[in-house]
Structures are given as structure tokens and as C-alpha cells.
Amino acid sequence: MMISNDSVKISVVIPVYNVKKYVKQAVDSILAQSVAPYEVIIVDDGSTDGSGDLLEELYGHLEVVKIVHTTNHGLGEARNEGSRHVTGEFTYYFDSDDIAVPTLLEEFMLAYQRNSDLDIFCFSADSFFDTPNNSNQPLPFYTRKMDKDFPDGVAAFNTLSAYGTFYPNAWMYVFRSNLLSKHDLRFKPIIHEDEEFTPRLFFKAGKVTASNKILFKRRVRAGSIMQSNRNEKNVIGYIESINALELLRSASESKKTKKHLSDRIYTNIITISNIIECGHISLTDDLNVKLVGIKERNKSVLIYLAKLNPRVYRLFYLIKRRLTRPIYA
Fold first, then answer.
1. Can you list the alpha helix ranges (DSSP code H) found in the chain?
2. Which residue numbers delimit the Glycosyltransferase 2-like domain (predicted)?
3. Cα angle 37, 41, 45; round to 5
């Protein structure tokens, strides 16, 4: 069956920062889709390795490609900048060192043709090592474990969370572009911006389709944001994520939804504790205050956490003790 992109316009936003070695393979995997994108918006986020010049050389002459050059503000703001240029009905955020399976946009189009009210299309993904020397380490895999339609984003969030297959990664979703403007959704200038953004997107969405087909290949490479040594900025990112999840939880009247949101908060608390302990990070007083606030607001979660992982609970207790100094009297 021939599928045309005439029925709906898909905008692909690709932030680029110092990935000259990989960006051609990444962009080419989007341009080679079996259903062509309506537009490809590439945001060069202040690259210093020649990525911007290479993009102009390879794609500057293509009508379907728009290249935007900015100073460096990070991945989240680069996506925000790309979204300001989007004119398509649907948006897909694609990372500049990964590979799209050739049928990614085609599978979205098939889902849309079955349901023109679709707001979010989500799919499975797998990953590969950039270099073979890491081959003994386990690779992350992102499976949905289902092919299913949902009446709204909250129902999708609950079911995917129950199966352990709700992933925050923005590159696992094609979504209706006007969700951003209607609900004032944008990425915050933090690390782990997806953790903060994607749940909010789901809670504003109407119909969602989940596909178990693998439509994305994530490159695992040394030196990437997710693979680099973690520091205080990582902690800030997860604190912002917890704040967003808490707001969603307080606005929900569903016990099921509250539970799944609390589970994500619990996971972020665990991650913060691991970052602090494994990285031997000394946090500022301001961050310590925020962590104590999280503890106070999530006592029931932390009681559960204490049973499963006393070490993490003890870490939060020690942080609170540090804050008994006179400066906070």
C-alpha cells in the first residue's frame, strides 16, 4: 500500500551539538524515510567541531531542510528553538547521533490513518554501542510490550507505567504540534529534560497509540550527556522532574495515577541518591533544602523506599541533619 505524506505534515526537529562524526548518518536516516517528512528543522546548538558547517554543506541546499544556528543553550532549549520553526501538524524530536528505522514515519502515518484524532504515537526502540570495546556491557532496550490504542494520555501513562514501559525519552514519540502552544509546554534548561517534559505532555494529550515495533536505534557512545560523569547538574535535573511529577500527582483524583506518579518520584529519588553517593558530590545548601522538601512531601513514598532500600532513606536523613545548622534557624 502506497502511503503519502499529503494527509498530515510531520516536522522533524534535530538538535545538533558537536556530533560531526555521526550527524550525516542520523540526518540521512530521516531523509531516507519511506514516508518523507514535511520538513526537517536542524538546530545547530553552537557546535564547535564543525558540525554546523558540515550541515550547511550537506543539506543547506535542500528545500525540505531548515538549518538554524544558535549559541549553545543545551538540548532542551535547542528543541524549543526548533519547535518555534515547526509548521507541521505533528512533531518528532530526533537526536543527532542516532538512527531512525526507515519505516518510523510510515508506521506513524498508518496509525494516524486509523485514527485521525491521534495526539501521540509511541513505539519501541533498541540500542547499539558506538565502539565494540563496550560489547560486554548490557545494552538498554526500550520495548512497549503491546500494540494498543488509548482514549487519552493519562490512560496510556497508567498502562505503560504498569508494564514498566513508559519511557520519558522524547525520541520515542511523535506528537501533535499544537499540544505545545495550547498548554504552554516547553523543555526546561536542565539535564534530563525529558524526565520533566514527557509526563506533562502525556497528561495534556488526547488519544495515544502504542506500537511494539522497533522504529529507533539509539547509539550508546562515550562522552554523550547520558554516559558522562554525573554531577550537581544531574541532581538539579531530577529535582525538577520530581517537582513536575508532584504537580501532576496533586492535580489527579485517580488513586491509580497517583500511584504511578509516586513510583516515578521514587525512581528519581533513588537516582539522585546514587548520583550523590557514587559521584561523591557535595551539594549546595540550596539543593539540600530542596531535597529535604522532597522528603517531607513524599513521606509515604520514602517509608516504602526505606523498606526496599534503607541506604537511600538514610542518605535523605543525613541531608536533613546537615540542615540543622544555624544558617537555617
1. 23-31, 51-59, 75-84, 104-114, 153-162, 178-183, 193-203, 232-251, 255-278, 285-297, 299-308, 310-322
2. 11-151
3. 150
Question: Cell for 100?
Answer: 531512525
Q: What class does CATH assign to 11-223?
A: alpha beta
Contact 142, 101 (CB under 8 A): no
CB 182: neighbour CB atoms within 10 A?
10
Please state the domain extents for the chain: 11-223, 229-324
- Measure the CA–CA gap between 185 and 43, rounded to whole angstroms: 19
Q: Which of 143, 41, 142 is nearest to 94 (CA)?
A: 41
Quick check: 14 and 42 in contact, CB under 8 A?
yes
Find the helix or strand (DSSP H, E) in which 134 lies: none
Q: Which amino acid is located at 245 in the chain?
A: L
Question: Are 323 and 288 contacting, i.e. CB atoms less than 8 angstroms apart?
Answer: yes
Q: What is the pTM of this model?
A: 0.89
Over its length of 329 residues, how does the chain's per-residue pLDDT go in tens digits?
456 667 799 999 999 999 999 999 999 999 999 999 999 999 999 999 999 999 999 999 999 999 999 999 999 999 999 999 999 999 999 999 999 999 999 999 999 999 999 999 999 999 998 887 655 778 889 999 999 999 999 999 999 999 999 999 999 999 999 999 999 999 999 999 999 999 999 999 999 999 999 999 999 976 554 545 678 999 999 999 999 999 999 999 999 999 999 999 988 988 888 888 777 788 888 998 998 898 888 877 666 656 666 665 555 555 544 444 433 32
Q: How far apart are CA 175 and CA 39, in angstroms?
A: 15
